[in-house]
From TrEMBL:
MF terms in GO: magnesium ion binding; O-succinylbenzoate synthase activity; racemase and epimerase activity
Keyword Transferase in annotation: no
Cofactor: a divalent metal cation
EC numbers, comma separated: 4.2.1.113
Catalysed reaction, written as an equation: (1R,6R)-6-hydroxy-2-succinyl-cyclohexa-2,4-diene-1-carboxylate = 2-succinylbenzoate + H2O
Keywords, alphabetical: Lyase, Magnesium, Menaquinone biosynthesis, Metal-binding
Function: Converts 2-succinyl-6-hydroxy-2,4-cyclohexadiene-1-carboxylate (SHCHC) to 2-succinylbenzoate (OSB).
Binding site residues for Mg(2+): 189, 214, 239
Protein name from the UniProt record: o-succinylbenzoate synthase
Domain Mandelate racemase/muconate lactonizing enzyme C-terminal: 143-235
Pathway: Quinol/quinone metabolism; 1,4-dihydroxy-2-naphthoate biosynthesis; 1,4-dihydroxy-2-naphthoate from chorismate: step 4/7; Quinol/quinone metabolism; menaquinone biosynthesis
BP GO terms, sorted: menaquinone biosynthetic process
Length: 369
C-alpha cells in the first residue's frame, strides 16, 4: 500500500474529575487524532497521547508534532508498505520519541487491518471479547472524598484500583482504603516521587497486601529499584522506565521489578509492544496494559491489544465516562460486569464522531502527495 494523505484533528477534552499525580494536576487532555489514507481511500486512525507538559516522560505533544511532521512522515511516504511491522524498522533512524512513532505506527496497523477487512486482534492471535479492567484514582487531599470516589468505582464494577501516591500521601490513604475494602485488589503508583533514601519507609507498604507498587523511583533508575525489590515482598512494577524490550531485559536481569506496565505509545507502537509481551511470557514477568487518558481511539487500540490471553490482570483501561463527558468516537465505551468489550469492526473497530471532533478540536491536513 501507499500513503497518499495524512490529516490530523487537534483535540482538547475536559476531564470530568481533575487528575492529580505526584507531579501535577490535569484538568483537560490535549491529544491529536491522526488519519492516514492509502491509495484506495482506506483510512487508518492513530492517537498521539503525549501530554502538554514533559512531566510524565520527556516527550510532549508539541515535540511529537515536530518529530511527526519533520522526521517520520518523510520516511513513510513515496514507498510501498507491505506490512505494518516494517514501520518500526523504518523509524529506527529517529531516536527515541516513542509516542510520536506510535501515533503513526498504530494508524498504519489500523489501516492495514481495514484494507484486509479484519479486526486488529486477529493479528495478535487474540480471541477474547470482554476485557477485565481497573481504574486509576488521582490524589485527593480529602480522604473522605477519596473513599467516596473509590466506593463509586467499586460499585460500578471496576476489578482493581490503582491509587496515585507521593511522599506525605501514602500510608494514611492506603490504610483508610484497606480498612473499608480489605480484599479489594489495590495497587499504588508513585510516578517517580521517591528516592532510595525512602527505602525503609516504602517497606512499610508491605503491610497492606498491595498487588504492586508502580514506579517508586526515577524513570532512568534500574539499580535502586532492584535494591528495593530485594527487600520488599510487594511486587514492583515499572512504567516510565520501559521504553523498549531492551529496558525489560535490563530490568529482568537486574531484578528491578516483577511486573511491567505496558503502554503501546511509550514503547513506540505495536511491534515493540508485541516483543515485550513475548519477553514477559518467556520470563514469567507479570505484564498488564497501562493507560494514558486515551480517547476512544487509543482505548479501542488498547482493548484490541489487551484481548491477548496473557492480559489477565485488569488494565488501566476504564470506560469513557470515567474520563470524559463526551468521547470523540460514535459509541463510547461502557463498563459491564467490570469488563469492556473489544470493538468488533475492522481495524481498531471504532468510528469517529465528526460532530464531537469539530466541537472539541480543529482539523488540519499535514501531508498530501
Ligand atoms: O502513571 O500510569 C500512569 C495516566 C497518565 C499518565 C501516567 C499514568 C496515568 C494513569 C491513568 O495512571 C491511566 C489511565 O486510566 O488512562
Ligand atoms: Mg504509572
Amino acid at each position: 500500500m501507499k500513503i497518499k494523505r495524512i490529516d490530523c484533528y487537534r483535540i482538547r477534552l475536559p476531564l470530568r474529575i481533575p487528575f492529580e499525580t505526584s507531579y501535577g494536576r490535569l484538568t483537560e487532555k490535549a491529544f491529536d487524532i491522526i488519519l492516514i489514507t492509502d491509495e484506495l481511500g482506506n483510512q487508518g486512525i492513530g492517537e498521539l497521547v503525549a501530554f502538554e507538559q514533559p512531566d510524565y516522560i520527556e516527550e510532549t505533544i508539541a515535540t511529537a508534532r515536530i518529530i511527526i511532521e519533520k522526521h517520520l512522515i518523510p520516511l513513510l511516504i513515496d514507498r510501498e508498505i507491505d506490512d505494518p511491522r516494517e514501520i518500526s524498522l523504518l523509524f529506527q533512524e529517529v531516536k527515541g520519541n516513542q509516542m510520536a512513532k506510535s501515533s503513526i505506527e498504530t494508524a498504519v496497523w489500523d489501516l492495514y487491518a481495514k484494507r484486509n477487512g479484519k479486526s486488529l486482534q486477529t493479528y495478535f492471535s487474540a480471541t477474547r471479547t470482554q476485557i477485565p479492567v481497573g481504574v486509576s484514582v488521582g490524589i485527593q487531599s480529602d480522604i473522605s472524598e477519596l473513599l467516596k470516589q473509590i466506593t463509586a468505582y467499586v460499585d460500578q464494577g471496576y476489578q482493581r484500583v490503582k491509587l496515585k501516591i507521593r511522599p506525605g500521601y501514602d500510608l494514611k490513604p492506603i490504610a483508610s482504603i484497606r480498612e473499608k475494602f480489605p480484599d479489594l485488589p489495590l495497587m499504588v503508583d508513585a510516578n517517580s516521587a521517591y528516592t532510595i533514601d525512602d527505602l525503609s519507609h516504602l517497606k512499610k507498604l508491605d503491610a497492606y497486601n498491595l498487588v504492586m507498587l508502580e514506579q517508586p523511583f526515577a524513570a532512568d533508575d534500574f539499580l535502586d529499584h532492584a535494591q528495593l525489590q530485594k527487600v520488599m515482598k510487594t511486587k514492583i512494577c515499572l512504567d516510565e522506565n520501559i521504553r523498549s524490550v531492551k529496558a525489560c531485559e535490563l530490568a529482568f536481569a537486574l531484578g528491578s521489578c516483577r511486573s511491567i506496565n505496558l503502554k503501546i505509545p511509550r514503547v513506540g507502537g505495536i511491534t515493540e509492544a508485541l516483543k515485550i509481551v513475548d519477553f514477559c511470557e518467556k520470563h514469567d514477568l507479570l505484564v498488564w496494559l497501562g493507560g494514558m487518558f486515551e480517547s476512544g481511539v487509543g482505548r479501542a487500540l488498547n482493548l484490541q491489544f489487551a484481548s491477548q490471553s496473557i492480559f489477565t490482570f485488569p488494565g488501566d483501561i476504564s470506560a469513557s465516562d470515567r474520563y470524559y463527558y463526551e468521547d470523540i468516537i460514535s459509541k463510547p465505551f461502557v463498563l459491564t460486569n467490570g469488563k469492556l468489550s473489544v470493538p468488533t469492526g475492522s481495524g481498531i473497530g471504532v468510528s469517529l464522531s465528526p460532530e464531537h471532533l469539530l466541537k472539541y478540536g480543529n482539523y488540519e491536513t499535514i501531508y498530501t502527495d
